[in-house]
């Protein structure tokens, strides 16, 4: 190990003195280990890598990407002992090795979207946030048909760089452009290209991951089982992904997008009932999702508005006859359609300004509010009468800001077998549902009111959605499905409460992979995958 420069020695000593003034022995031991392990690199100021609560930049870094503030207002969660902001792989390795050696667990954060805040707070003991947002480089090796993407990148950065590289290249991933790649890709990754090309995880061809021993492994060295697990099973239970190698997909020079809005008086219920049959059976080039809004009218009455938002891999002249034949009830007109580049369509679908592509590079949280989400999968169409019952339930609660988003299955995402990768939601699903509610009030009573209503809504929907098990999408994390607060002690049976819903029949294999690669369960969180035990 190289000798420490005088300036770094001073920083080392000062930081250690500050930490010792408040920290317990575990935290002090972790810090000493981390500093000793990383101090040979004199080019990087240690104060720019590790942040402690009594340092000036701690709150700025801690809050920099948090999307859901309700966990900051809760007395049931704790903040991290440190935030580590690695700028190279060696810093990640040091955090893993020192954390495991001295009993401080890690929470990995890339974009901060974690729906239940598990990447930035904990209901367990002391922990460290490993914020990998600086590991976000994107490069295009070989002929440009592949890309290496840092797990700290956001989806918007992927879209921007891919679109800049090649006007006829794209990548299937999520709608919200500030989602972090690290969690999104490893949990599946669904969006407007899923019917044509499958999920994000279906298009990952290699990865670099730091395991529980602090080793950097690629696809070959990590082995088939671990590579299978981190494509759809979430990476947080298995290690820290540094980079993904992704396979880019072909998109035409121009795509066509549209948004049609209908109210109940404009036959929205009949349209939605028909959409369930049509959307999963359309040509794979066409994706039409629906967004249901409960809105208050000027009269004070509450009604339902349904948006039909579509993206077609082709021109307007090809789209119109296709929709007129398959879904004439939608009454799609030429003036409803806009042709644009695929990269611009990613902003359109996210309801952003398509003329300002640099918005795709903006990592800042879009809101400073609280939210709650749940998810379902639908395998049998809901009848028109069923939708009317659902509208009645939604409109009776006039102050619950619920949005229901439904994305069509069918096409490539349904053709891939449910065991090809860990992402299991395949053939037989017509569409998935995300129930999403956002509020700005900070009172605990208001938050509990919203949460309780959302749980009631979820129970109300039970007869209409999948069952035995009732499936859920891991990227729409829902702590109500079950959780463990006994740190490192989660049993296979206990975790099946959420594992069987997120991963269906793949849950057992994921737990067996966990037993192989992290038998001590160092990578733990309240809704993680435990090592398999009969």
Automatic annotation (TrEMBL):
Keywords: FAD, Flavoprotein, Glycoprotein, Signal. Its cofactor is FAD. It comes from the Eukaryota. It holds the Pfam family FAD_binding_4. Residues 76-251 form the FAD-binding PCMH-type domain. The keyword Signal applies. The keyword Cell membrane does not apply. Residues 1-23 form the signal peptide. This is FAD-binding PCMH-type domain-containing protein. The lineage of its organism: Eukaryota, Viridiplantae, Streptophyta, Embryophyta, Tracheophyta.
């Amino acid at each position: 190990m190289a000798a420490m420069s005088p300036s770094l020695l001073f920083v080392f000593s000062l930081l250690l003195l500050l930490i010792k003034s408040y920290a317990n022995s575990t935290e002090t031991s972790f810090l000493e280990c981390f500093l000793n392990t990383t101090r040979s690199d004199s080019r990087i100021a240690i104060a720019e890598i590790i942040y402690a609560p009594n340092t000036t930049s701690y709150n700025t870094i801690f809050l920099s990407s948090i999307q859901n503030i309700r966990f900051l207002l809760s007395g049931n969660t704790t903040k991290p002992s440190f935030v580590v902001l690695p700028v190279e792989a060696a810093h990640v390795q040091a955090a893993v090795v020192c954390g495991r050696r001295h009993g401080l667990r890690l929470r990995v954060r890339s974009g901060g979207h974690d729906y239940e805040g598990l990447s930035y707070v904990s209901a367990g003991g002391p922990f460290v946030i490993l914020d990998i947002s600086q590991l976000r480089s994107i490069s295009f090796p070989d002929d440009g048909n592949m890309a290496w993407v840092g797990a700290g990148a956001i989806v918007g950065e992927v879209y921007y760089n891919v679109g800049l590289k090649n006007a006829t290249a794209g990548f299937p991933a999520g709608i919200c452009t500030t989602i972090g790649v690290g969690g999104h890709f490893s949990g599946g990754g669904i969006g407007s290209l899923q019917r044509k090309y499958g999920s994000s995880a279906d298009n990952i061809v290699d990865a670099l991951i730091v395991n529980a021993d602090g080793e950097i492994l690629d696809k070959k060295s990590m082995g088939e089982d671990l590579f299978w697990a981190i494509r759809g099973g979430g990476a947080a239970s298995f290690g820290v992904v540094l980079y993904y190698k992704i396979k880019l997909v072909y998109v035409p020079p121009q795509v066509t997008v549209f948004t049609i809005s209908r109210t109940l008086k404009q036959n929205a219920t009949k349209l939605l009932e028909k959409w369930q049959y049509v959307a999963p059976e359309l040509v794979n080039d066409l994706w039409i999702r629906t967004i249901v809004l409960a809105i208050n009218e000027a009269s004070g009455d509450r009604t339902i508005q349904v948006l039909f938002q579509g993206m077609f891999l082709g021109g307007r002249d090809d789209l119109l006859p296709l929709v007129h034949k398959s879904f004439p009830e939608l009454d799609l007109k030429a003036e409803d359609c806009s042709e644009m580049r695929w990269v611009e369509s990613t902003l359109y679908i996210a309801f952003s300004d398509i003329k300002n592509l640099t918005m795709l590079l903006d990592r800042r949280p879009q809101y400073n509010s609280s939210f709650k989400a749940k998810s379902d999968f639908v395998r049998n169409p809901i009848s028109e009468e069923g939708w009317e019952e659902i509208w009645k339930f939604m409109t009776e609660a006039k102050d619950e800001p619920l949005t229901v988003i439904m994305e069509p299955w069918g096409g490539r995402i349904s053709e891939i077998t449910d065991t090809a990768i860990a992402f299991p939601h395949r053939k037989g699903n017509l569409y998935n549902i995300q129930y999403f509610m956002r509020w700005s009030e900070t009172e605990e009573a208001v938050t509990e009111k919203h949460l309780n209503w959302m749980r009631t809504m979820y129970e109300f929907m039970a007869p209409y959605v999948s069952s035995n098990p009732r499936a859920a999408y891991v990227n729409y994390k829902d702590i109500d499905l079950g959780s463990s607060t006994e740190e490192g002690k989660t049993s296979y049976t206990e975790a099946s409460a959420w594992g069987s819903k997120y991963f269906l029949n793949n849950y057992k294999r994921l737990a067996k992979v966990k037993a192989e690669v992290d038998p001590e369960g160092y990578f733990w969180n309240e809704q993680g995958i435990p090592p398999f035990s009969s």
